[in-house]
């Protein structure tokens, strides 16, 4: 094996997989799913159509969509044993920890045995249907209520809002969330998707791959940034507080959540669409404060640093205006990204090779072994 000479820190610039799913055009600020511009999908398609597109590489006909939607809707309920377990978890648990744990548990309750590759599509369908159910059911349970049964007559987004709030949502609110789901469905080899593909490449199963993806999404440098963005806005509390915060944070080389991206050099195209949705959401609720703070923050950041705004920035105020609790923002992201994760796992299985990069060894070499009795304590940390 040839020793690598340089280390691509953070794997920046390394092409680690071929994919037909997302085409991220970082310089141009464009994103396409299976060849379709997300602006068109966001304007005209539903989340269910987007999932179909990602899994089957074609937009569905009406008949195909009807069948697919029925299958997804029928798979939403969680097994009774899983609900019973959920009731035992501490109510102050972080929802992303709950999601990660419950997906693992769903693997235990899945009695369909067989090779991971053969059962993957059925499991993809179940997990895509159930991710939103877990988040909504947990929110009920932690607030001391019995979780509502999912409604098969509502789509993925509307059913989530129904399960969360106990009332059928305003169709405008449901469409806003549906569009956000379309925009978050896939994004090439981001950290969580890479983890999912690496796990799948060992021929481990779909549940295991998704548990890993959820663990990666939780971090504030990835999906957790939407929660962190909203917490910053809530802490600042007014438009006037925004600019001093930006100046102070940048002066100390701090990070402002919702800005920056490994791939985009122009504004994230999802953020461009979400900005319009955030404005619309403010109009629907009559509360413009968070949106105005965000516009101020974006102007203040971009006047000082060439940082693109990313997907998590405006999704924060969109989710907030829909009444979604802040600590459910990242689970809501997961309830959409499950489409992409599962699609990537299926793509990995279809043309698999174990993902196993090299590392450049930079530690000590050729030391003489020291017997236990002769060792002198090394200073900590070593
Ligand atoms: C997304 C992110 C992790 C990409 O990281 P990356 O490609 O490794 O880029 P780096 O963190 O090395 O940042 C490069 C430079 O931009 C700066 N930068 C990047 N994001 C920044 C942010 N959100 N606020 C302030 N400065 C930022 C870094 O400080 C660094 O500056 P320097 O060259 O003067 O040291 C990073 O932009 C970030 O932490 N953003 C905030 C979290 C976030 O919104 N995540 C969601 C991503 S969709």
Task: Give a short summary of the structure.
This protein is mainly alpha-helical. The chain has helices at 38-44, 47-56, 62-74, 80-86, 95-109, 116-142, 156-165, 171-184, 191-200, 206-217, 225-236, 242-251, 269-285, 289-304, 311-321, 329-350; strands spanning 22-25, 30-33, 36-37.
Overall geometry comes to globular
Quickly name the level 1 CATH class of the domain at 225-321. Mainly Alpha
From the alpha carbons, calculate the radius of gyration and give it in angstroms. Answer: 22 Å
* Annotated CATH architecture of the domain at 225-321: Orthogonal Bundle
How many helical elements? 16
Mean pLDDT: 95
Number of distinct beta strands: 3
Give the ordered list of helices and strands: EEEHHHHHHHHHHHHHHHH
Low-confidence stretches: none
Estimated share of beta-strand residues = under 5%
Helix content: 55-70%
Q: Termini, distance in Å?
A: 29 Å
SS-based structural class?
A: mainly alpha
Q: Let me know the CATH homologous superfamily of the domain at 225-321.
A: Cytochrome P450-Terp, domain 2
The major beta sheet can be summarized as: 3 strands, antiparallel
**What spatial order of strands do you see in the largest sheet?**
1-2-3
Task: Describe this entry's structure for a reader.
The structure is a single chain. By secondary structure, the chain is mostly helical. The protein has a domain at 225-321: Orthogonal Bundle (Cytochrome p450-Terp, domain 2), CATH 1.10.230. It has 16 helices and three strands. The chain has helices at 38-44, 47-56, 62-74, 80-86, 95-109, 116-142, 156-165, 171-184, 191-200, 206-217, 225-236, 242-251, 269-285, 289-304, 311-321, 329-350; strands spanning 22-25, 30-33, 36-37. It has a three-stranded antiparallel β-sheet. Helix 1 (38-44) packs antiparallel against helix 8 (171-184), helix 8 (171-184) crosses helix 16 (329-350) and helix 11 (225-236) crosses helix 15 (311-321). The longest helix has 27 residues, at 116-142. The radius of gyration is 22 Å and the shape is globular. The model has no long low-confidence stretch (mean pLDDT 95). The structure holds coenzyme A. Coenzyme A binds next to helix 15.
């Amino acid at each position: 094996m040839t020793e690598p000479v340089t280390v691509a820190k953070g794997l920046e610039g390394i092409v680690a997989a071929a994919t037909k799913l997302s085409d991220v055009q970082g310089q141009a600020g464009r994103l396409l799913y299976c060849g379709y511009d997300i602006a068109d999908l966001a304007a005209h398609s539903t989340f269910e159509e987007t999932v179909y597109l990602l899994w089957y590489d074609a937009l569905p006909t009406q008949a195909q969509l009807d069948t697919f939607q029925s299958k997804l809707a029928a798979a939403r309920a969680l097994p009774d044993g899983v609900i019973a377990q959920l009731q035992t978890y501490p109510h102050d648990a972080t929802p992303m920890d709950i999601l990660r744990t419950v997906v693992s548990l769903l693997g235990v309750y899945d009695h369909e045995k067989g090779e991971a590759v053969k059962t993957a599509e059925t499991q993809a369908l179940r997990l895509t249907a159930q991710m939103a159910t877990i988040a909504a059911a947990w929110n009920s349970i932690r607030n001391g209520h019995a979780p509502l049964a999912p409604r098969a007559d509502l789509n993925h987004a509307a059913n989530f809002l129904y399960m969360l709030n106990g009332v059928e949502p305003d169709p405008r609110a449901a469409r806003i969330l549906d569009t956000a789901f379309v925009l978050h469905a896939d994004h090439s080899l981001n950290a969580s998707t890479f983890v999912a593909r690496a796990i799948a490449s060992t021929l481990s199963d779909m549940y295991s791959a998704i548990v890993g993806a959820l663990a990666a999404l939780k971090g504030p440098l990835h999906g957790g940034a939407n929660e962190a963005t909203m917490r910053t806005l809530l802490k600042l509390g007014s438009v006037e507080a925004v600019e001093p915060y930006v100046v102070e944070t940048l002066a100390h080389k701090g990070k402002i959540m919702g800005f920056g991206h490994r791939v985009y050099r122009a504004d994230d195209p999802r953020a461009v669409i979400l900005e319009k949705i955030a404005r619309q959401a403010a109009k629907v609720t009559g509360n413009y404060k968070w949106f105005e703070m965000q516009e101020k923050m974006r102007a203040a950041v971009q006047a000082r640093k060439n940082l693109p705004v990313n997907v998590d920035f405006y999704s924060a105020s969109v989710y907030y205006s829909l009444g979604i609790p802040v600590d459910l923002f990242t689970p809501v992201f997961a309830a959409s990204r499950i489409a992409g994760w599962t699609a990537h796992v299926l793509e990995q299985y279809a043309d698999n090779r174990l993902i196993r990069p090299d590392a450049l060894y930079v530690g000590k070499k050729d030391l003489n072994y020291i017997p236990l009795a002769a060792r002198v304590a090394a200073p900590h940390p070593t």
